[in-house]
Amino acid sequence: MNILRIAIKELKVFRDFKMAVFMLITPVVLILILGTAMSNMFNGSMAVGDIRVLYQDNSTPGSAIAKQWESFAREAGKSGILFEKAGGDKDGILEVQNSQYTGFTVIADSGLSYYGNNRSSVEGSIVQGMLAAFADRYKLAAEVAKADLKLPANPAQPGAGGGDYVQEASLDAAKQPGSLDYFAVAVTTLIILYSALSADHLIKSEKKRHTDIRLMASPITKAEILTGKIVGTFLLNFLFMIIVVLISKYVFDANWGDNMGLVILVLSTEIVFALGLGLGISYIIRGEASGAVIMIIIQIAAFVGGSYYPSEDSTGIFRTLSSYSPLQWTNDAILQLIYADHISASITAMLLNMGGAALLLTIAAVTMRRREGL
Amino acid sequence: MNVLEINKLTKQFGDFIAVDNLSLSIQDGEIFGFLGANGAGKSTAINMITSLLPITRGQIEILGKNIVKHSKFAKANIGIVPQELAIYEDMTAYENVQFFAGLYGLRGSLLKSRAEEALAFVGLEDKHRSYSKNFSGGMKRRLNIACAIAHRPKLIIMDEPTVGIDPQSRSYILNSIKKLNEMGSTIIYTSHYMEEVEEICTRIAIIDHGKIIAQGTKQQLKAIITNQKNISIEVRSVEQLDVEKLRDIVGVNTVELADAVIRISSDAEINNLNKIIQQLMASGMEIRSVEADEPNLETVFLTLTGRSLRD
């Protein structure tokens, strides 16, 4: 009951006009500005660099498909699409997830499997088109061989029949986020991460108002105080997040997909992570410096995590750094949910968020327990 | 029955001993004054009584129960009015009182009525829905008290509750404290204003360097220094005054100068006023007035600690 009482007290911050402005108007304006200003990054005419596709040949050595594949890969290389054979120790799907390759394809006697990377959606579409063409050509060649006919010099162009041979396991090339769609997600996750700053002030604000004296003198435990404050701040941020999502969905017509429940769940875990980050750092670094540290972390996470531009466009060290950004893994999970109905990335993101939050909140709780006062 | 019993209480921060072997007992119905200069150790002692600070050594009992073993019981029977305002300015007066009283287990209609009673008690009954950020300093101080009394604690600790407020609010608060005491609460009161302590406290302890150096009723404390008398003599100018000659007069202990006033502390039993006046006149000084002061708590404090309460 005391936890609930403290949580409800925290929710009353909602009446603070400045707070409401920051939490609601800022994201809405940011979505609008970034969504409009960056729209050219999301059209279909973007330049495509060299495309690298990893493949694994499981077909019978010397079989027709193996020979056809070798020829196809060689020709594709001339067009800037490099097919690289996977070594025994390489996990193709992992390589694609880490953005080392645009896609991963497995060649078997029964046909082709292709695993794409949603970060390289345009390149992925090109590769899929070429593989479909190869599958059609191979199918045609196989039929010709069966009938013992000579292969015509110019075989037929790819057609719908390729579907029998290509198992599509990548994003639907037709479903891509527009600028507003992308920044509705990216700005929402960014604003959620900013709640780490309010978490940093959760205990500090009590000390500043001297109400920590009353709280500590009342017959409730430190754990109840901390839990109540976390629950209240979570609910407050959850409320703000829902409003921002609804505004972006119904005012800006942003696409949040068909898995809204799961999307909200992923965003909720990010709120928990942000609260853990704020509280954890406020206990690790005493004084006002913790706020500055949190701000720096948020800015770096935002920069490499795709809050201001899609992180799929980053390269080198930034790409590596991006995989450590909570914004990157949360954005990625939500975009995959919306545009590919992929649940696995969201589970990974939720586990990372909750795991990080558990670690940071444990640090806060242990430090608080050892301290005199809150 | 003792509401509070402190036995050999010690608080140590590293090598520094903030409270040193402090013992006292406060009986039901008392208004107990706690006097000490800044850093004397009274806030540290209060923080241990309210469980805000862990005890290094010694014991504290509230209503006969050890506050460490029966923490919830002890806390439930204490109400604290901190020196600093401890209210949420973004909440209304009623919400503040309701929130804090709720932490003591009050629920529903009882919580509502107690919160309303507390606000009425401090004269804020017509400010239920007003945000405390819009209150004057005096009103905030009163709300600070309301937040501490709604759960009807047996022991109320008031740490400088009248700091920085207008005389009208101070008077209101002092009357409220007396009324709370009449209603059955035992009160520990600390203040820098000696006259307040003198006015409302039934018993007083003087704490210095973490130790209680004297305790008792006002009369008992004054009796400690009744062998002293204070004489204030106003003159036209102190330029010609020979302080050493005044000090040489039998019975004179201290001589202090403040503008054109000579303050002399002397043994009460020695009648030396005529010699003092004679000495001043011999120095060619023009005497304007002579006053012999009754000892007050300020004098007691100064005599016992060697410094003023506000030092």
UniProtKB/TrEMBL annotation, chain A:
| Mode of membrane association | Multi-pass membrane protein
Secretion signal: which residues? none
Query: Domain named ABC transmembrane type-2: which ranges?
Result: 149-371
Q: Any idea which UniProt keywords this protein has?
A: Cell membrane, Membrane, Transmembrane, Transmembrane helix, Transport
**Database matches in PROSITE patterns:** ABC_TM2
Name the residues that span the membrane: 21-42, 182-203, 224-248, 260-285, 292-309, 343-366
What Pfam families does the record tag this protein with? Answer: ABC2_membrane_3 (PF12698)
What is its subcellular localisation? Cell membrane
Instruction: Supply the PANTHER family for this chain.
Output: LINEARMYCIN RESISTANCE PERMEASE PROTEIN LNRM, MEMBRANE COMPONENT OF ABC TRANSPORTER YHHJ-RELATED
| Family statement drawn from the similarity comment of this UniProt entry | Belongs to the ABC-2 integral membrane protein family.
Protein name, as recorded: ABC transporter permease
What organism does the record attribute this protein to?
Paenibacillus mendelii
UniProtKB/TrEMBL annotation, chain B:
For this protein, the record's PROSITE patterns field holds: ABC_TRANSPORTER_1, ABC_TRANSPORTER_2
Ordered alphabetically, the record's keywords are: ATP-binding, Nucleotide-binding, Transport
Highest taxon of the source? Bacteria
Where would one find coiled-coil regions in this protein? Answer: none
- For the ABC transporter domain, which residue ranges apply? 4-234
Q: Is the keyword ATP-binding in the record?
A: yes
Pfam families assigned: ABC_tran, DrrA1-3_C
Please give the name of this protein: ATP-binding cassette domain-containing protein
Biological classification of the source: Bacteria, Bacillati, Bacillota, Bacilli, Bacillales
